[in-house]
Amino acid sequence: MALGKYQRVDGRKSSSYCSTGVVIAFVALCLVGVWMMTSPSVVPERNEISQDGKVDVGEIPTETKSRQFEDSQGDLPEDAMKGDSNNNSDQQDEGNSEVHDNQKASQQTTEETTEDNQGGKSEKDDGDKGAGSDETSNAQTDKGTGSDETSNAQTESNGGGEKTEETESNADSGETQTETGGHAEPVENPIETKKEEKVNEKVDENQEQQSENSSDNKKDSSDSSQGANEVFPDVAPAEILNETTTQNGSFSTQRAESKNEKEKHQSTESKEEDSTGYSWKVCNVTAGPDYIPCLDNVQALKKLRSTRHYEHRERHCPEEAPTCLVALPEGYKRPIEWPVSRDKIWYHNVPHTKLAAVKGHQNWVKVTGEYLTFPGGGTQFKYGASHYIEFLQDGVLDIAWGKQSRVILDVGCGVASFGGYLFDKDVLTMSLAPKDEHEAQVQFALERGIPAISAVMGTKRLPFPGNVFDAIHCARCRVPWHIEGGQLLLELNRMLRPGGYFLWSATPVYQKLPEDVEIWNAMTELTKKMCWELVTIKEDKVDLVGAAIYRKPLTNKCYESRQENDPPLCKESDDPNAAWNVSLQACMHKIPVDETARGSHWPEQWPLRLERPPYWLTSTQVGVYGKAAPEDFTSDYKHWKHVVTKSYLTGMGISWSKVRNVMDMRSIYGGFAAALKDLNVWVMNVVTIDSPDTLPIIYERGLFGMYHDWCESFSTYPRSYDLLHADHLFSKLKKRCNLVAVMAEVDRILRPEGKLIVRDNVEIINEIEKMAKSLHWEIRLTYSKDAEGLLCVQKTMWRPKEIETIASATA
Ligand SMILES: *[C@@H]1O[C@H](CO)[C@@H](O)[C@H](O)[C@H]1NC(C)=O
Ligand SMILES: *[C@@H]1O[C@H](CO)[C@@H](O)[C@H](O)[C@H]1NC(C)=O
Ligand SMILES: *[C@@H]1O[C@H](CO)[C@@H](O)[C@H](O)[C@H]1NC(C)=O
Ligand SMILES: *[C@@H]1O[C@H](CO)[C@@H](O)[C@H](O)[C@H]1NC(C)=O
Ligand SMILES: *[C@@H]1O[C@H](CO)[C@@H](O)[C@H](O)[C@H]1NC(C)=O
Ligand SMILES: *[C@@H]1O[C@H](CO)[C@@H](O)[C@H](O)[C@H]1NC(C)=O
Fold first, then answer.
1. Tens digits of per-residue pLDDT, 632-683?
2. CA-to-CA distance for 770 and 280, rounded, in angstroms?
3. Per-residue model confidence as pLDDT tens digits over 787-801
4. With the C-alpha atoms ordered 611, 659, 201, 23, is the resulting torsion angle positive or negative?
5. Is 512 exposed, middle or buried (0-12, 13-18, 19+ CB in 10 A)?
6. What pLDDT is recorded for position 258?
7. 726 phi and psi, to 5 degrees?
8. CB within 8 Å of 610: residues ≥ 6 apart
9. How many angstroms separate the alpha carbon of residue 806 from the centre of ligand 5?
10. Given 535, 566, 591, which residue is the final one in a domain?
11. Nearest CA to ligand 4 atom 8
12. What is the distance in A from the centroid of ligand 4 to the CA of 620?
């Protein structure tokens, strides 16, 4: 079924060829230009650095290291091409580099055509601005445990792709070779093939002539210097940033910080390999195409003794991470592009049959033909999120959206319209809401291209460091802040930056019903004891709502002058950054006051804070790559800017206008995300629990992310990201968990036609490539040099036919 759809879409493509071709020609010309200008600067001495890190970094004088770092010209194929023509004949290593081009130009075209169609069809949304009701965005009201959805697994299971991968790819590469000059040698000429790939990516039949010419050109230049591969050392500069200090650097790991953490999923078995590689199956689970393994563990939920604290919305990962693939919903289409997606998405991509019935009378979402449309309202801002955003800033000018307040947390976010409209203000919003049965609001948010995760304020700390959010917002989120010693509000207090604001927009602020008054009084008492200053109560005459704005203190003065130690200050040993599987503590951490401590000053204003090393990173600290921390930070920034501009943006055939939701699966300083700043994307930076804990740095520079262990499933819906970036992730994971399960998780998270970029050692690259092929993904680029490699693959609509029933996830 999925295949059929895909082909149908394919058949529609028609008129975009011409313009695409022109673009390609232009790009090709530019490339030649870049190539000519930059060739002389290619520095071949990179192999000193040894991409596999075998070379001891210590042997290389720091100066050399940093120079190489800055000089590294080629993280990408183009650079390789440049270098190639440059006769860098001092390096003659061949044979390690290979490039496979299995690319089908038509796929790319399909993608574009589909997009065009969507754009053309846009309907005017005429949503009225009527009031929503309370149910809309409350995080904590859903008590349902029923499972209404039936599995769609079977319906989705027939895919195409009967051919074995091996056959296909062999055929492809053979073809490529012939086309580009009939090389028969087993070792492909990387330059040439890459050029071919590059051109193929955007060129259709009409442009064949041109692409051949440019291939020829490239071939000529590569032929002229025997060592086509010799320039490739420049391609793997990631390794310059060798992480030397995981164990004894200045940053401890989230794992170490979270004392309770245990090694969980050690499972190495069940490779499910047959002679041809891997045999994938579609998950037969109650949640069907919306399966989130750690949130849909029906069996574990049944065993819960209590759900009073929303334990049933917390993570309960299956003993063994699933290796099956999640079904596609019937009628799934390529998601609508941002920013149109902020207002409407395909109904069939998030088919919640109860939605229309249950929420039909509300205004935050409507079913409009094939679309779900979002009139831009929420329960708390029926006149639009933009108005509401201004309203809050009018309350406290200091909020200064996009300057002073850059990274905020939205609790109980509903469909995240608030976060969606804050993009207009250069504000990045981490939205969270618990998984709910009837309408998956977080799924809507992600489908709209707005960041969100499934999480609940329950019994565990949220997976964020302490003192990182510039502001925290909650609009009718219905979290019972005031009960149980204010435990949940104290969790917000942990995450809120000293001097940061809590924006509480809820009925107790402006309604006088007895229940509201009671809550208001309790909140007033609690926030006083917590030393939060009530800055203002702002009423909105238009929306007829009100917001109370509190501020977390900047010093410990108030704490010290309290009559009672209630809520208590946390023990000195309690690490505010420990947040992975750590139970909530009803206590407050002291405000850091040391000049060099994080949290003692507000960060620089955005966007300056993106590029400046935080003031609290001192030269005496050793960074992740072994240099002094600030230097390390700057190197990382330059490195990723280089890689992204030279390679990812232009060299991989990725249409970035179609990319919106991005995840860096193993982020260090957030350099990759920082390099994408000017694009219309947002990046979820994941700091893995056994990496140095650099997440506070990521927040300090105005980016966001969370802790995670990739041996488990991520708390997001299937098909929610357009691009995943895995820099030396899989090699580290392989020691602890089953890579097949990790790949199944990558498949789950990635939207069809979404891309995965992997940088890792060659064995891992080969293994991932093999798995990707067995998943019927398109291999867009593989490149390797010495022991390091780069891989870019694209997920397809393919789903296996076989079914695997996951006992833990079936009711
Ligand atoms: C970094 O270098 C060490 C040896 O100094 C090596 O063991 C390690 O694998 C290298 N790391 C990477 C990511 O290449
Ligand atoms: C490459 O080297 C050869 C011989 O060493 C020389 O003839 C040729 O001009 C060089 N090409 C470039 C682009 O430098
Ligand atoms: C491609 O090369 C052929 C001959 O090799 C030439 O006739 C044609 O004009 C070239 N096309 C372009 C676009 O350069
Ligand atoms: C890490 O510690 C080991 C021994 O404890 C030491 O030999 C090594 O130099 C340290 N590395 C760094 C980068 O500090
Ligand atoms: C899917 O799982 C359910 C519940 O265990 C089972 O009844 C059904 O037969 C399974 N379907 C397939 C195709 O295996
Ligand atoms: C979390 O920690 C508890 C012990 O505090 C442990 O029993 C549980 O298995 C852990 N869960 C996960 C997912 O790590």
1. 999 999 999 999 998 999 888 899 999 999 999 999 999 999 999 999 999 9
2. 13
3. 899 999 999 999 999
4. negative
5. exposed
6. 73
7. -125, 100
8. 674, 677, 701, 702, 703
9. 9
10. 591
11. 248
12. 14
Give the model's pLDDT for residue 742. Answer: 97
Whether pLDDT at 163 is above 80? no
- Which residues have C-beta atoms less than 6 Å from ligand 6? 260, 264, 317, 581
The residues lining ligand 5, judged by C-beta closer than 6 Å to any ligand atom, are 151, 154, 284, 803, 805, 810
User: Could you give the CA distance from residue 219 to residue 580 in angstroms, rounded to a whole number?
Assistant: 52
Q: Is the pLDDT of residue 119 over 70?
A: no
State if residue 85 touches ligand 2 by the CB under 6 angstroms criterion: yes
Predicted TM-score (pTM) of this structure: 0.69
Structure tokens at 69: 């770092």
Cβ neighbours for 725, distance < 8 A, ≥ 6 positions apart: 662, 663, 664, 665, 672, 756, 757
Give the total number of structural domains in the chain.
Answer: 2
- Specify if 617 maps to a domain: no
Query: Which of 39, 85, 87, 90, when mutated, tests ligand 2's pocket best, judged by the most ligand atoms within 8 Å of its CB?
Result: 87
Ligand number with the minimum distance to the CA of 623: 4
Parallel, antiparallel or unpaired: strands 682-688 and 704-708: parallel
Residue nearest to atom 7 of ligand 2 (CA): 224
Same domain, 442 and 380: yes
- The mean predicted confidence, pLDDT, of the chain is 74
Query: Do 670 and 792 lie in a common domain?
Result: yes
Q: 87 CB under 6 A from ligand 2? A: yes
Claim to verify: residue 557 and residue 666 sit in the same structural domain: no
Residue 213 alpha carbon, nearest atom of ligand 3:
1
The CB density around residue 220, as the number of other CB atoms within 10 Å, is 12
User: Are residues 653 and 509 both part of a single domain?
Assistant: no
Residue 412's pLDDT is 82
Of the candidate ranges 49-53, 364-368, 508-512, 769-773, the one whose mean pLDDT is the lowest: 49-53
Q: Percent of the chain scored above 70 by pLDDT? A: 64
Distance (Å) of CA 173 to CA 184, 189, 196, 333, 578: 11, 11, 11, 30, 49
Nearest CA to ligand 4 atom 2: 248
pLDDT at 144: 38
Structure confidence at residue 359 as a pLDDT band (50, 70, 90): low
d(CA 674, ligand 1 centre) in Å: 25
CATH number for 572: 3.40.50.150
Which one is predicted more confidently, 695 or 811?
695
Contact of 755 with 724, CB cutoff 8 Å: yes
- Looking at the structure, tell me whether residues 383 and 489 fall in a common domain: yes
Query: Which pLDDT score, from 0 to 100, does residue 565 have?
Result: 92
CA quadruple 76, 81, 87, 88: dihedral, nearest 10: 10
**Closest residue to atom 3 of ligand 6, CA basis:** 260
- Same-domain check for residues 413 and 509: yes
Report yes or no on 308 lying in a domain: no
Closest CA to 131 of 419, 543, 440: 543
pLDDT for residue 471: 97
pLDDT tens for 30-78 read 444 334 333 333 333 333 333 333 333 233 233 333 322 222 332 333 3
556 lines ligand 2 (CB under 6 A): no
Domain shared by 556 and 664, yes or no: no
Note the pLDDT of residue 426: 96
Distance (angstroms) between ligand 3 centre and the Cα of 212 equals: 8
Structural domain for 758, as ranges: 629-801
pLDDT digits (tens, 9 = 90+) for 478-510: 889 999 999 999 999 999 999 999 999 989 999
Q: What is the full DSSP assignment across 712-779?
A: S--SS-TT-EEEEEEES-HHHHHTTS-HHHHHHHHHHHEEEEEEEEEEEEHHHHHHHHHHHHHTT-EE
Give the bridge partners for 428, in sequence order. Answer: 407
Answer yes or no: do 508 and 366 share one domain.
yes
Q: Is residue 547 part of a domain?
A: yes
